Amino acid sequence: MSLRLGDIAPNFTAETSAGKIDFYEYLGDGWGVLFSHPADYTPVCTTELGKTALLQEEFAKRNVKVLAVSVDSLDRHTGWIKDINETQNTDVKFPIIADPERKVATAYGMIHPNASENFTVRSLFVIGPDKKVKLTITYPASTGRNFYEVLRVIDSLQLTANYSVATPADWKPTEDVIIVPAVSTEDAIKKFPKGVKVVKPYLRYTPQPNL
Fold first, then answer.
1. pTM for the complete prediction?
2. Is 98 within 8 Å of 75 (Cβ atoms)?
3. Which domain does 128 fall in, by range?
4. Which residues belong to the active site?
5. Dist. CA 63–CA 126, nearest whole Å
6. pLDDT tens string 165-192
7. Of the residues 93, 118, 145, which one is the last residue of a structural domain?
C-alpha cells in the first residue's frame, strides 16, 4: 500500500554505501529525502545521483539529509558510485541503501504491481522532522527528476510549517506568499507587519515573512 501525505514514514535499518544506518537516527530532528532507483548502472539514475551530489550543500543548508535506495548489492553500489563520480564530475557522499530483499521498497510502496518484482518505481519522498511524509513524487523511467523543484518544495514546506501562509503557483524563495484563509484580514494586518495586499477576500498576499 502506498504511503500518503501525512502518514508516518516507516523506520528501518539497512546496509548502505556509508555503513549501516537506522533511518530515524540518521535523520535526527531534521528533514529527509528518500528516493528510489530501479537498479544500479541505469543511465537516467546515474545523472540523478550525480545532480543530488552536486546539490549536497543546498540540501545541507536546509537541514535535509538525502538517501537513495536500490535493490542491488553494496558491491554494485561501490562500482556504480565510481562511475557516477567520474561521469558527473562529483563526489557522492550520501548513503545509497542496499535493498536486495526489497524490505525498504516494500515498506514505502516502491514495488510497482505491473513491473518486475525486482524493480522499484522511481519514487521520491520528503519527510519532515515529525517523521511524516510531506511530499511524494513518482516519475517514469524515461524522465529524470528535477532536484531544483525538490529544493523549491522543501523551501515551501519549511516556510509554511512555521507561518500561516501558503505559496502560490511557481513560487520561488523571496517572492510574495499567500495568507491562509484561516487568518482574517484584520488579524493578518497585525500578524504580517510587512504588509497585506488584498486581491480578493480569500486571496491575500504578503512578503515572505522569514526574510
1. 0.92
2. no
3. 13-145
4. 45
5. 12
6. 999 999 999 999 999 999 999 999 999 9
7. 145
